[in-house]
Amino acid sequence: MNGFSFSRVGAMMLRYTFLLRSSWPRLIEMVYWPTVQMLTWGFLQSYIAQASGGASVSGKFAETLIGAVLLWDILLRAQQGFAFSFLEEMWSRNLANLLMSPLTTAEFLVSLMGMSLVRLFIGVAPVTLLAILFFGFNLWSLGLALAGFFVVLSLFAWSMGLFVCGMLLRYGLGAENLAWSLMFAVQPLGCVYYPVAVLPSWLQYVAWALPPTYVFEGLRAALIDHVFRVDLMAIGFGMDIVLFIGAVFAFVRLLAGARRAGSLLQTGE
User: Fold this and answer.
1) How confident is the model at residue 2 (pLDDT cuts 50, 70, 90)?
2) What is the dihedral of CA 84, 85, 88, 93, to 10 degrees?
3) Model confidence pLDDT, tens digit, residues 161-205
4) CA–CA distance from 76 to each of 71, 72, 83, 159, 160 (Å)?
5) Are 187 and 72 in contact (CB under 8 A)?
6) How far from the centroid of its chain's Cα atoms is residue 95's Cα?
7) Distances (CA, A) of 73 to 159, 226, 254
8) What is the pLDDT of residues 39-54, one digit of tens each?
């Protein structure tokens, strides 16, 4: 039985990096959508601030809005970065070769998480600088709070990515749209752009069951009240750990199901 090898993880990440380097349209697309979203919402918040005569309440709302847009992109791009690297193997019909190689499942998943961070940095880091240039909003100034937000969002994104990849293994490219669309189901219930208190009381229980809710509530506390809510981050992180373990378990079961069904060699539509 093979032990865990960081060399094999590095080799996989190098392979995915070469794929990115060989296609400049892919690199542009990774920056394009976060930039469009940030500019659209940023100019909207500027309009709201101007329409309200620059009241202080509007200014705080504007800051939380553009901060929420940037954190939402971290969540979305981390999940898509994980799933898209996996999809590369399916599109090139290389998945069966990988699973027959010495590469273990754990090494494969760690390489997907590593590439998720690489793709996230390429896509979102330039947009945070544009937010400073256009709107004077510096996400990096959140410091320790930003680190807490990043950890909770990344773990949740990887859990979602694991579930999507498991579905792809079991049901083939017919489940491909989940890689693009599944995270958007979280957006309204994760209270990205508004506080949990806006939701009907019965729906608030659902919202508090999602780790991203604790991040976006924490962001509003940091920007409006200038308080870093460690309690919110601790709860979100704890829920993330449970979800991540469940997602790994689901992925392993779906992979075993795909092996039994013989679908690994038939990963088309």
Assistant:
1) low
2) -120
3) 999 998 888 888 877 888 888 888 888 999 998 999 999 999 999
4) 9, 6, 11, 12, 10
5) yes
6) 23
7) 16, 22, 28
8) 998 888 888 777 766 5
